[in-house]
Design goal:
about 180 residues; mainly alpha; two-stranded antiparallel ribbon
């Protein structure tokens, strides 16, 4: 089998166990949570995307990895990770939390889609060995990130207000913001 075929097979199969895991374990748990708490859990996972800067770290990737691909992947991940961290630290200031949560999901999903496009454009499957240690990121981590972006975007778009417990134990609408 050629390296390109192995890479493409890995890329496709990388989604299968994550879809099974998310469907069996993650989605039921997220559905049982308040929407903001569920999005907070997803933001926690994505806050580690700063690690994507490794795509431009000499010695980690091969010298023939297309530079345009590596730079876009690195900084897209970095921006997403920082936005996810901002979502986490702004959790108790809900308008900011919703803003940063929307931003990290739009930027992050867009980054992954653009990376897939650039990977195809630059012939990445044939150069898969140039990914070096980052190969595992692309095959194992990226499918989980894309799946959780889809879940998060669904949660963000879902109709009905997000609620929280009021001090007296009742539910209080916290999203969308109420205007006066």
């Amino acid at each position: 089998m050629s390296p390109a075929t192995i890479f493409q097979l890995h890329l496709i199969l990388g989604y299968v166990p994550w879809l099974l895991c998310v469907g069996a374990y993650v989605l039921p748990r997220l559905r049982s949570m308040d929407r903001a708490e569920a999005l907070r859990a997803i933001a926690t996972l994505h806050s580690f995307r700063f690690f994507g800067l490794v795509f431009i770290l000499p010695g980690v990737v091969g010298p023939n990895l297309p530079g345009d691909f590596a730079v876009m992947a690195a900084y897209g991940d970095f921006a997403t990770g920082v936005l996810a961290m901002l979502a986490l630290v702004s959790f108790h200031v809900r308008p900011l939390f919703w803003l940063f949560t929307s931003a990290f999901n739009l930027v992050g999903a867009g980054d992954l889609i653009i990376d897939y496009y650039h990977g195809a454009q630059f012939g990445l499957p044939a150069l898969a060995g140039q990914l070096g240690a980052t190969y595992a990121i692309v095959i194992i981590y990226v499918p989980l990130l894309m799946i959780t972006h889809i879940v998060a975007l669904y949660l963000l778009a879902r109709r009905g207000p997000a609620t929280a417990q009021s001090p007296d134990g009742g539910a209080v609408s916290i999203w969308p913001p109420q205007t006066r």
